[in-house]
Amino acid sequence: MADTTSTDHGRFALPTKNLPAPQVRDLPEPPTKTWKIIGPGMVGAGVGLASGEFILWPYISSQVGLVFLWGAVVGVVIQWFLNMEIERYTLATGETALTGFNRYGKHWGLFFAIMTYFANLWPGWATSSASMLTYLFGAGDPRWIAIGMLLLIGAILTFAPVVYVMLERLIAVKIAAVALLVILALVFAIRAKTYGALGDAVTHPQFPADELGFALVMGAIAYAGAGGGQNLVQSNWIRDKGFGQGAHVPRLTSPVTGETEADPTANGYTFTPDDANLARWRRWWKFANIEQAATFVAITVVTIVFTSMLAHATLFGNPDVKNNIGFLKIEGTTLQTLVGDWFGYLFWAIGAFSLFAAAAGIVDYTSRLSSDMIKARYLRESKITESKLYFWLVWGLVAFGIIVLLAGLTQPLVLLVISACTAGTMMFVYSGLLWWMNSRALPHAIRITTWRAAVLAFSFLAFGFLAVFTIIDQVKKL
C-alpha cells in the first residue's frame, strides 16, 4: 500500500507503509463529570514514586544536601511535556506512541520495548522493598522475600479481570500512605535546619556530578517521576481509561479471569477536523493537561521534596551513610531516636509497600508496552491475543528477576542506576521521535506547538548529553 503522507495540512497524515490506514470516527464527547476519568496521571505518579523518591533523591540529599533538588523539578517538568506529547498522539488516533513510531520505522516499537524490558529486568524495586521489610521485622533474607514478591506480583497482574482498574486502586492506596508519611514528617521529624537548607537550595543550586558521579546524577534526573518506558505507557493507560479516540479501543483484560476481549487488531482512528470535532479536541486536550499537572507533576514534586527533606533531617553529615540500600535502615533508626520507635517502623512499612506497588506497576507497564506493540505490529492476523502476550511477558519478567536474584545480584542501588541510565537514553531518542511524529502526522489545528517543540528539543539535547557523559564516566572507571 502506498504511503499516505499527504500534503493536505488540514488532515491527518499517518504513514501507511508499515501499518494499515486508520479508520475515521468522530472524536468522542468528553464526559461532563471529568473527575470520573482522572487516573492515568495518578497511576504514573504512583508507579514513579519508587527508586527516585525513596532511594536516589534521598541518598543524594544525605550526601550533598538539598542543593540539587532543582534537578528533580526540571526532570518532572520535562516529563510532563513528554507525557503530553505521548498523550496528544493517542488522544487523536487511539494508537499508542509506539504504534505511531512504527508507522515511521518498521521496528522503532520493538527497539523501545526491548530497551524498556532491559531497563526493568533488574528487580531493584522488589529488592528495595524486601530490604525495608527486613528492617521493619528485624529479620529475613531480602533475596527470598523479593522472590516471593515477584511471584505475588505475577499472580496479581494475571488474575485481575481488568488490569488497569486493579493497578489504579493499588496506586491510590499507595499515594494515601505516602501522603500520611509526608504529613507526619512535617509535624514530627523535619527541623528548622532542613527548612534553611531548602532555602539555600533555591538561592544556591549546584550540580554535584563530581561528588556523586554522572551515572547517579543522570539516573536521578531520568527517574524524577517516571522515566523511560513509563512515560511511553501513558498511551496505554489513557486508552484503558477511555480518553479521546482511545475510547474506541478495547481494554487489556486477564486471559484467565477477564471478559472476552474485543478485536484488538483494528486500525487507529482519526477524525475529520471540523468545528465540532475540534471543539471536542480542545476540551480533551485541556482536561488531559490539567489531569497530568494536578496528579503526576504535583504528587511527584511534593513527594521528592519531602522525602529528600526527611533524608536531610536524619542523614546529612552522617559518615556511616554509604552508597547502598542500608542508608534507609540508618534513616529509620534515626527517626526512631528523634521521634519514637513507631515513626521508624511506619517509615519502613510505608516504604516497603510503596516500592512493592511500584514494582507491580513496573512489571505491568513493561509487559503492557511490549504486548501491545507485538500484537499491533507483528501478530495482527494471529489468534494470539494481546492479553495472552501480556501474561507470558509478565511471567517472563518475573522469572528473569528471580534468576537475577538467585545469581546474587541483590544490590538495589546498583541495579537502579543501571535501569535509570537505560531510561535516560530512551528519553533522548523518543524526545526526537515525538517531535517528528506530532509535527507531521496530525492536522495543523492539533499539532505540537513551537514552544512545546522547543521543550522536546531541550529534552533531546539534555538526555543525549547526559547519556554520552555517563558512558564516558563509566568507561573511565573500568
TrEMBL record:
- Superkingdom classification of source: Bacteria
Looking at the record, which segments are called Disordered?
Answer: 1-25
Q: Which UniProt keywords apply?
A: Membrane, Transmembrane, Transmembrane helix
TM regions (residue ranges): 63-82, 108-125, 145-164, 171-192, 212-233, 293-315, 345-368, 389-407, 413-437, 449-472
Which residue windows does the record flag with biased composition (Basic and acidic residues)?
A: 1-11
Name of the featured protein: Mn2+/Fe2+ NRAMP family transporter
